[in-house]
Amino acid sequence: MRRIAGIALALMVLAGPARAVNPDEQLADPKLEARAAKLSRELRCVVCQNQTIDDSDAALAHDLRVILRERIAAGDTDDEAVAYLVARYGSFVELRPPLRADTMFLWFGPLALLLVGGAAAFVYVRGRSPRRASALSAAEEAEFAELMKTDEAS
Amino acid sequence: MKRILFLAPIVGFVVLIGVFFAGLHRDPTLLPSMMIGKPVPQFDLPPVRPDGPGFATADLKGEPALVNFYASWCVACRVEHPMLMRLRAEGVPIHGVDWKENETGPGYQWLEMRGDPYIHVGDDRSGRTGIDMGVSAVPETFVVDKRGVVRYRHVGAITPEDWDRKIGPLMKKLQAES
Known about the structure:
The structure holds two protein chains of two kinds.
Chain A: H1 2-14, H2 30-40, H3 59-73, H4 78-89, H5 104-128, H6 138-153
Helix pairs in contact in A: 2-3, 3-4
Chain B: H1 2-24, E1 44-45, E2 55-56, E3 65-70, H2 75-89, E4 94-99, H3 106-114, E5 121-124, H4 128-132, E6 140-144, E7 150-155, H5 160-176
């Protein structure tokens, strides 16, 4: 029983992510194919919006994978191949949003919020911390000495 | 000052809730089109009707028109079809692109069976013309002005409401343009 469970676990660990790329879509040149595969994992399928075109089984995702490979086979750089699709579907297809004026908030918003929130929390916590005790007054000093004395006496 | 600091997170929270609530009513599948303000890309598609003309970029010059992407396998297109027939009967110029059919025939049978609202209909078997225009699913309709520049993109079936509110007035405006 344990052995079967072990084998099952090993098989589960071995199972790779399911990709939708068909063998007939792939480029013959393994180097170009590797570039295309990498790019297609960074491009969003416009039909099933939170899948990459590499994962998606949608007919349009298939077309876009083929187009991507055509561009790469035709000598496009990675940026040019992605730009070809962005020109048609907008930067929405880029799963890694580019750094632009209108994506600044996306990139730095969380950090800005963290800094503002952190500063606010810092100010708040500092304001609440108890005052550091000031030195004892003469009367307190005397009282303290008195107490110590009685302690020693006993 | 203290009071402002105390209220700020609450105000922020309420604003955030407002943004999220408004977001609930927006359709995440509606994406901005890259085509607006750009000329229709070059294409020259073979005819869908065996005896009819094909559909090429050059056919879009002269008067504002609708370019409607449809397919025989598309369910929403069935819903939209009567609306296209109505618009055609009212004299609105409509051209069709039969997008990503698997074979010759169904696209034409569709027109035979349901009626033919199109002036030109092209067969975009590979889907490349649609992809060049950023089509992600059918039906999708582009409003093209008389110079062949895309002015508006409508995703999904055109309802009478869409026509009255947005596309109809826009067509009227484009017809008035010199």
